[in-house]
Amino acid sequence: MSKVWLITGASRGIGAEIARAALAAGDRVVATGRNPQSVEEALGASDRLLAIGLDVTIVRQADEAVKAAIDKFGRIDVLVNNAGYALLGALEECSAEEVEAQFRTNVFGLLHVTRAVLPILRAQRSGHIFNISSLAGFYGDPGASSYCGTKFAVEGLSESLSREVAPLGIHVTIVEPGYFRTDFLSGASVNHAARVISDYDETAGKARRATAEVDGKQANDPKKLAQAFVTLTNAEKPPLRFTAGADAVELLEKSLSRKKLQLDQWRELSISFAHD
Protein backbone atom coordinates (compact mmCIF):
# COMPACT_ATOMS: atom_id res chain seq x y z
CA MET A 1 0.00 0.00 0.00
CA SER A 2 1.31 3.42 -0.90
CA LYS A 3 2.32 5.76 1.92
CA VAL A 4 0.68 9.09 2.70
CA TRP A 5 3.08 11.97 3.32
CA LEU A 6 2.34 15.29 5.03
CA ILE A 7 5.07 17.80 4.16
CA THR A 8 5.32 21.37 5.46
CA GLY A 9 7.10 24.07 3.52
CA ALA A 10 6.49 22.21 0.25
CA SER A 11 6.13 25.12 -2.17
CA ARG A 12 9.84 25.23 -3.01
CA GLY A 13 13.29 24.01 -2.11
CA ILE A 14 13.86 20.73 -0.30
CA GLY A 15 10.19 20.42 0.69
CA ALA A 16 9.04 20.54 -2.93
CA GLU A 17 11.72 18.04 -3.98
CA ILE A 18 10.64 15.60 -1.25
CA ALA A 19 7.04 15.89 -2.45
CA ARG A 20 8.11 15.17 -6.05
CA ALA A 21 10.18 12.16 -4.97
CA ALA A 22 7.30 10.73 -2.93
CA LEU A 23 4.88 11.16 -5.82
CA ALA A 24 7.38 9.56 -8.21
CA ALA A 25 7.58 6.59 -5.82
CA GLY A 26 3.83 6.10 -6.19
CA ASP A 27 2.93 7.55 -2.80
CA ARG A 28 0.27 10.10 -1.92
CA VAL A 29 1.25 13.56 -0.68
CA VAL A 30 -0.37 16.30 1.35
CA ALA A 31 1.85 19.27 0.49
CA THR A 32 1.45 22.41 2.56
CA GLY A 33 2.62 25.99 2.41
CA ARG A 34 1.43 29.43 3.37
CA ASN A 35 0.08 29.84 -0.16
CA PRO A 36 -1.57 26.67 -1.51
CA GLN A 37 -1.57 28.10 -5.04
CA SER A 38 2.23 28.28 -4.92
CA VAL A 39 2.33 24.63 -3.83
CA GLU A 40 0.10 23.60 -6.75
CA GLU A 41 2.20 25.61 -9.21
CA ALA A 42 5.40 24.00 -7.90
CA LEU A 43 4.16 20.40 -7.96
CA GLY A 44 1.52 20.28 -10.70
CA ALA A 45 -1.79 18.46 -10.64
CA SER A 46 -2.19 14.85 -9.51
CA ASP A 47 -4.98 12.79 -7.99
CA ARG A 48 -2.38 11.64 -5.44
CA LEU A 49 -1.60 15.22 -4.37
CA LEU A 50 -3.51 17.47 -1.97
CA ALA A 51 -2.11 21.01 -1.75
CA ILE A 52 -3.38 23.00 1.21
CA GLY A 53 -2.53 26.23 3.01
CA LEU A 54 -0.76 25.97 6.33
CA ASP A 55 0.92 28.59 8.47
CA VAL A 56 2.69 26.34 10.99
CA THR A 57 2.66 29.06 13.65
CA ILE A 58 -1.14 28.78 13.92
CA VAL A 59 -2.31 25.73 15.90
CA ARG A 60 -5.77 25.73 14.34
CA GLN A 61 -4.32 25.51 10.84
CA ALA A 62 -2.14 22.55 11.82
CA ASP A 63 -5.22 20.71 13.11
CA GLU A 64 -7.15 21.58 9.95
CA ALA A 65 -4.34 20.33 7.71
CA VAL A 66 -4.29 16.97 9.47
CA LYS A 67 -8.09 16.69 9.22
CA ALA A 68 -7.91 17.46 5.49
CA ALA A 69 -5.26 14.78 5.03
CA ILE A 70 -7.40 12.18 6.79
CA ASP A 71 -10.54 13.22 4.91
CA LYS A 72 -8.70 12.87 1.59
CA PHE A 73 -6.46 9.83 2.10
CA GLY A 74 -7.61 8.18 5.33
CA ARG A 75 -4.23 8.03 7.06
CA ILE A 76 -0.80 9.66 7.47
CA ASP A 77 2.36 7.56 7.32
CA VAL A 78 5.14 10.11 6.99
CA LEU A 79 5.38 13.61 8.46
CA VAL A 80 8.14 15.90 7.17
CA ASN A 81 8.53 19.02 9.32
CA ASN A 82 10.40 21.12 6.79
CA ALA A 83 8.98 24.65 7.13
CA GLY A 84 11.50 27.13 8.45
CA TYR A 85 13.83 30.01 7.71
CA ALA A 86 17.16 31.44 8.84
CA LEU A 87 17.83 34.64 10.76
CA LEU A 88 21.38 35.93 10.35
CA GLY A 89 22.95 38.26 12.86
CA ALA A 90 25.02 38.18 16.04
CA LEU A 91 23.04 37.51 19.20
CA GLU A 92 23.26 41.16 20.25
CA GLU A 93 22.21 42.34 16.81
CA CYS A 94 19.00 40.29 16.81
CA SER A 95 15.99 41.91 18.46
CA ALA A 96 13.67 40.05 20.80
CA GLU A 97 10.93 40.22 18.16
CA GLU A 98 13.20 38.78 15.44
CA VAL A 99 14.33 35.88 17.64
CA GLU A 100 10.82 35.11 18.87
CA ALA A 101 9.51 35.02 15.29
CA GLN A 102 12.32 32.61 14.36
CA PHE A 103 11.43 30.26 17.21
CA ARG A 104 7.68 30.51 16.47
CA THR A 105 8.25 29.05 13.00
CA ASN A 106 11.24 26.73 13.38
CA VAL A 107 10.42 25.26 16.80
CA PHE A 108 6.85 25.96 17.86
CA GLY A 109 5.55 25.47 14.31
CA LEU A 110 7.18 22.05 14.23
CA LEU A 111 5.62 21.24 17.60
CA HIS A 112 2.14 22.35 16.49
CA VAL A 113 2.16 20.08 13.44
CA THR A 114 3.73 17.14 15.27
CA ARG A 115 1.16 17.27 18.08
CA ALA A 116 -1.63 17.41 15.51
CA VAL A 117 -0.32 14.31 13.69
CA LEU A 118 0.64 12.16 16.70
CA PRO A 119 -2.91 10.98 17.57
CA ILE A 120 -3.20 9.56 14.04
CA LEU A 121 0.16 7.77 14.23
CA ARG A 122 -0.61 6.43 17.71
CA ALA A 123 -3.92 4.99 16.56
CA GLN A 124 -2.20 3.35 13.58
CA ARG A 125 0.72 2.14 15.74
CA SER A 126 2.96 3.17 12.85
CA GLY A 127 4.49 6.20 11.19
CA HIS A 128 7.71 8.09 10.55
CA ILE A 129 8.42 11.68 11.58
CA PHE A 130 11.23 13.57 9.87
CA ASN A 131 12.33 16.76 11.62
CA ILE A 132 14.57 18.91 9.45
CA SER A 133 17.48 20.20 11.45
CA SER A 134 20.72 21.41 9.86
CA LEU A 135 24.45 21.32 10.35
CA ALA A 136 23.44 24.30 12.51
CA GLY A 137 21.87 21.73 14.83
CA PHE A 138 25.29 20.54 15.99
CA TYR A 139 27.63 23.33 14.87
CA GLY A 140 27.32 26.78 16.46
CA ASP A 141 27.95 29.13 13.55
CA PRO A 142 28.89 32.72 14.50
CA GLY A 143 26.41 35.12 13.00
CA ALA A 144 23.53 32.64 13.14
CA SER A 145 22.93 32.40 16.88
CA SER A 146 19.14 32.40 16.69
CA TYR A 147 18.92 29.95 13.80
CA CYS A 148 21.37 27.56 15.47
CA GLY A 149 19.36 27.86 18.67
CA THR A 150 16.21 26.73 16.88
CA LYS A 151 17.95 23.76 15.30
CA PHE A 152 19.62 22.69 18.56
CA ALA A 153 16.11 22.79 20.06
CA VAL A 154 14.79 20.59 17.24
CA GLU A 155 17.58 18.08 17.93
CA GLY A 156 16.80 17.84 21.64
CA LEU A 157 13.03 17.59 21.42
CA SER A 158 13.31 15.07 18.56
CA GLU A 159 15.63 12.80 20.49
CA SER A 160 13.27 12.78 23.46
CA LEU A 161 10.24 12.31 21.21
CA SER A 162 11.86 9.31 19.52
CA ARG A 163 12.09 7.52 22.87
CA GLU A 164 8.50 8.41 23.77
CA VAL A 165 6.98 7.04 20.56
CA ALA A 166 9.28 4.09 19.78
CA PRO A 167 7.12 1.65 21.83
CA LEU A 168 4.14 2.77 19.71
CA GLY A 169 5.76 1.74 16.43
CA ILE A 170 6.62 5.31 15.39
CA HIS A 171 10.06 6.28 14.07
CA VAL A 172 11.71 9.71 14.36
CA THR A 173 14.60 10.82 12.16
CA ILE A 174 16.46 14.11 12.54
CA VAL A 175 17.88 15.21 9.17
CA GLU A 176 20.97 17.43 9.31
CA PRO A 177 21.59 18.83 5.81
CA GLY A 178 24.67 20.74 4.79
CA TYR A 179 24.51 23.31 2.00
CA PHE A 180 22.09 22.26 -0.75
CA ARG A 181 21.52 24.22 -3.94
CA THR A 182 18.07 25.66 -3.25
CA ASP A 183 16.86 29.22 -2.75
CA PHE A 184 17.16 28.82 1.04
CA LEU A 185 20.03 31.32 1.24
CA SER A 186 18.21 33.85 -0.91
CA GLY A 187 16.07 36.63 0.46
CA ALA A 188 13.09 34.28 0.30
CA SER A 189 14.30 32.15 3.23
CA VAL A 190 16.95 34.24 4.99
CA ASN A 191 16.18 37.23 7.19
CA HIS A 192 18.90 39.58 8.35
CA ALA A 193 18.87 41.28 11.72
CA ALA A 194 17.83 44.89 11.25
CA ARG A 195 20.59 46.07 13.56
CA VAL A 196 24.24 45.85 12.50
CA ILE A 197 27.04 46.39 15.05
CA SER A 198 30.46 47.09 13.56
CA ASP A 199 32.29 45.24 16.37
CA TYR A 200 30.83 41.99 14.98
CA ASP A 201 32.02 42.55 11.42
CA GLU A 202 34.63 39.78 11.62
CA THR A 203 32.09 37.24 12.88
CA ALA A 204 28.46 38.02 12.01
CA GLY A 205 29.47 40.33 9.19
CA LYS A 206 31.73 37.68 7.72
CA ALA A 207 28.88 35.15 7.95
CA ARG A 208 26.54 37.49 6.05
CA ARG A 209 29.09 37.96 3.29
CA ALA A 210 29.88 34.23 3.08
CA THR A 211 26.19 33.38 2.80
CA ALA A 212 25.76 35.76 -0.12
CA GLU A 213 28.84 34.30 -1.85
CA VAL A 214 27.75 30.64 -1.55
CA ASP A 215 24.14 31.21 -2.65
CA GLY A 216 23.59 29.37 -5.92
CA LYS A 217 26.92 27.54 -5.65
CA GLN A 218 26.08 24.95 -2.98
CA ALA A 219 27.72 21.60 -3.69
CA ASN A 220 24.82 19.31 -2.73
CA ASP A 221 21.88 18.28 -4.94
CA PRO A 222 18.42 18.59 -3.29
CA LYS A 223 16.93 15.99 -5.66
CA LYS A 224 19.34 13.37 -4.30
CA LEU A 225 18.45 14.37 -0.75
CA ALA A 226 14.75 13.99 -1.55
CA GLN A 227 15.36 10.48 -2.84
CA ALA A 228 17.16 9.68 0.42
CA PHE A 229 13.94 10.44 2.30
CA VAL A 230 12.15 7.80 0.25
CA THR A 231 14.96 5.34 1.02
CA LEU A 232 14.79 6.09 4.75
CA THR A 233 11.00 5.63 4.89
CA ASN A 234 11.49 2.10 3.56
CA ALA A 235 14.28 1.20 5.98
CA GLU A 236 13.39 -1.43 8.58
CA LYS A 237 15.41 0.44 11.22
CA PRO A 238 15.78 4.08 10.14
CA PRO A 239 18.38 6.19 11.93
CA LEU A 240 17.62 8.71 14.65
CA ARG A 241 20.03 11.11 12.94
CA PHE A 242 20.88 11.36 9.26
CA THR A 243 23.64 13.79 8.28
CA ALA A 244 23.32 14.82 4.64
CA GLY A 245 26.18 16.13 2.52
CA ALA A 246 29.94 15.72 2.64
CA ASP A 247 30.24 19.23 4.10
CA ALA A 248 27.90 18.38 6.97
CA VAL A 249 29.67 15.08 7.65
CA GLU A 250 33.04 16.85 7.79
CA LEU A 251 31.75 19.51 10.18
CA LEU A 252 30.11 16.89 12.41
CA GLU A 253 33.34 14.92 12.64
CA LYS A 254 35.25 18.09 13.56
CA SER A 255 32.61 19.03 16.13
CA LEU A 256 32.74 15.59 17.76
CA SER A 257 36.56 15.72 17.86
CA ARG A 258 36.56 19.14 19.53
CA LYS A 259 34.04 17.99 22.13
CA LYS A 260 36.04 14.86 22.88
CA LEU A 261 39.23 16.93 23.17
CA GLN A 262 37.62 19.30 25.69
CA LEU A 263 36.09 16.42 27.62
CA ASP A 264 39.52 14.78 27.94
CA GLN A 265 41.20 18.09 28.79
CA TRP A 266 38.88 18.78 31.73
CA ARG A 267 38.06 15.18 32.68
CA GLU A 268 39.87 15.26 36.03
CA LEU A 269 37.91 18.28 37.22
CA SER A 270 34.67 17.01 35.66
CA ILE A 271 34.68 13.77 37.67
CA SER A 272 35.92 15.25 40.95
CA PHE A 273 32.60 16.14 42.57
CA ALA A 274 31.62 12.97 44.43
CA HIS A 275 30.99 13.25 48.17
CA ASP A 276 34.00 12.21 50.26
Structural features, described:
With 276 residues, the protein is of the alpha/beta class. The chain has one domain: NAD(P)-binding Rossmann-like Domain (Rossmann fold, 3-Layer(aba) Sandwich), CATH 3.40.50. It contains nine helices and nine strands. The chain has helices at 13-24, 36-43, 59-73, 96-124, 145-165, 201-214, 222-233, 246-265, 267-270, and strands at residues 4-7, 28-33, 49-53, 78-81, 86-88, 127-132, 170-177, 190-192, 241-244. The strands form two sheets. It has a seven-stranded parallel beta sheet with strand order 3-2-1-4-6-7-9, sandwiched between helices. Strands 5-8 form a two-stranded parallel ribbon. Helix 1 packs across helix 7 (222-233). 43% of the residues are buried. The mean pLDDT is 93.
Report the average pLDDT across residues: 93
**Count of DSSP E strands?**
9
The CATH topology, please? Rossmann fold
Instruction: Tell me roughly what share of residues is in helical segments.
Output: 40-55%
Largest sheet: 7 strands, parallel
CATH architectural arrangement: 3-Layer(aba) Sandwich
The CATH homologous superfamily is called NAD(P)-binding Rossmann-like Domain
